TrEMBL record:
Pfam families: DHH, DHHA1. This is Bifunctional oligoribonuclease/PAP phosphatase NrnA. The lineage of its organism: Bacteria, Pseudomonadati, Bacteroidota, Flavobacteriia, Flavobacteriales. InterPro entries: DDH_dom (IPR001667), DHH_sf (IPR038763), DHHA1_dom (IPR003156), Oligoribo/pAp-PDE_c-di-AMP_PDE (IPR051319). One of its GO terms (molecular function) is nucleic acid binding. Residues 18-169 form the DDH domain. Residues 245-326 form the DHHA1 domain.
């Protein structure tokens, strides 16, 4: 755990400040939940916060309280730049390195004259002035809760903050089932329910909001599933043509990789998705046990993340990317065989 400059930050925040809060590109439940929770908290503390979102995020998290106050850096660029230029400090949430916001926004942030404060649970964090980094914590939302707790402000958590935090903890822990879910996580969740998070409604909003096409796309993904039993590995591919056929919308492939990991005996799963906009194959990796997909992705696919959930990319074609992946597996045979023996 790294906690750097916390007392100084507290003093800095004694006065009302213009604060910009940013999550990573392609925001997920944890990025949106944590930035919006911090937004509501800073509002209550008398600051003037603005959440700037790098790009589009899935429909199933649009309902989060405060979502309508955010600026999108890609298509509300002048408002976003203005908020950044007028800010006294920028909070970086749920990401560890400036390049994770995407190229244009990274350029803007690199010229930023004031200080950054990071609250994040990813490995290998960049060094910024104020830091709260803990790779052991399941979600940035739990860290925001603990940040509020360190400020002795738990009483300020209202139903909106509780709802945002609950959502990110729920999505980043696979509904409280991953290894990162601790007794502290459950205590935080219990407190959030007491403070007004409607757990049934949140699960319903996030997980039972599928379109028919999304289910058909899932069907396609499952029929593309390949299993490599000798490496305890399974992978899924989705091409642009398949995405188009089922009217792909942002977020439609979220969680699909977990179906590959749900196969008995599988400890390593990947999904390869063609991304026509960026002309890359975007990859999600998941694992069970000791096999670190963070390391695997950093070493071979220009990515990173956590030990059991990471992302990466490839500039090769889909076929070449899959061949590269399959060719790498023999090197990891032993690790994959023993991954879940603990
Ligand atoms: P997902 O597979 O759900 O997109 O991401 C899994 C985890 O890996 C998330 O914590 C996400 O922030 C991180 N991640 C996804 N893509 C990348 C990437 O290209 N680079 C790095 N460093 N992390 C990533
Ligand atoms: Mn997260």
């Amino acid at each position: 755990m790294i906690l750097k400059g916390f007392e100084e930050l507290k003093t800095f925040l004694d006065k009302p400040r213009n604060i910009v809060i940013i999550g990573h590109r392609n925001p997920d439940g944890d990025a949106m939940g944590s930035t919006l929770a911090l937004y509501h908290y800073f509002n209550k503390k008398g600051h003037n916060p603005t959440v700037v979102v790098p790009n589009e995020y899935p429909e199933f998290i649009h309902w989060l309280p405060g979502s309508d106050t955010t600026y999108r850096f890609d298509w509300q660029n002048s408002q976003s730049q203005k908020a950044i230029n007028n800010s006294d400090i920028i909070f970086l949430l749920d990401f560890n390195a400036l390049h994770r916001v995407g190229f244009d926004m990274q350029n803007t942030l690199e010229k930023y004259p004031n200080d950054f404060a990071m609250i994040d649970h990813h490995q290998q964090p960049d060094d910024v002035k104020y830091m709260y980094s803990d790779v052991e914590i399941c979600s940035t939302c739990q860290m925001v809760y603990q940040f509020i707790e360190m400020n002795n402000d738990l009483d300020l958590i209202d139903a909106d903050i509780a709802t945002c935090l609950y959502t990110g903890i729920m999505t980043d822990t696979g509904s409280f089932r991953f290894r990162s879910t601790t007794s502290k996580t459950h205590r935080v969740i219990a407190d959030l329910i007491d403070k007004g998070a409607k757990n049934d409604k949140i699960h319903n909003n996030v997980y039972d909001a599928n379109s028919y096409n999304r289910l058909l796309l899932l069907g396609q993904a499952l029929s593309n599933l390949q299993i490599l039993p000798s490496y305890n590995t399974a992978y899924i591919t989705l091409t642009n043509e398949e995405k188009k056929r089922f009217d792909f919308q942002k977020g439609d492939t979220e969680g699909v990789v977990n179906y590959a990991l749900s196969l008995k005996g599988i400890v390593f799963a990947a999904i390869f998705i063609e991304d026509a906009d960026q002309n890359i194959v975007k990859i999600s990796f998941r694992s069970k046990g000791n096999f670190s997909v963070n390391k695997f992705s950093r070493n071979h696919f220009e990515g990173g993340g956590h030990d059991n959930a990471a992302g990466g990319k490839s500039d090769l074609s889909m076929a070449e990317t899959v061949t590269k992946f399959v060719t790498l597996l023999p090197e990891y045979k032993k690790d994959l065989e023993t991954s879940y023996e603990n």
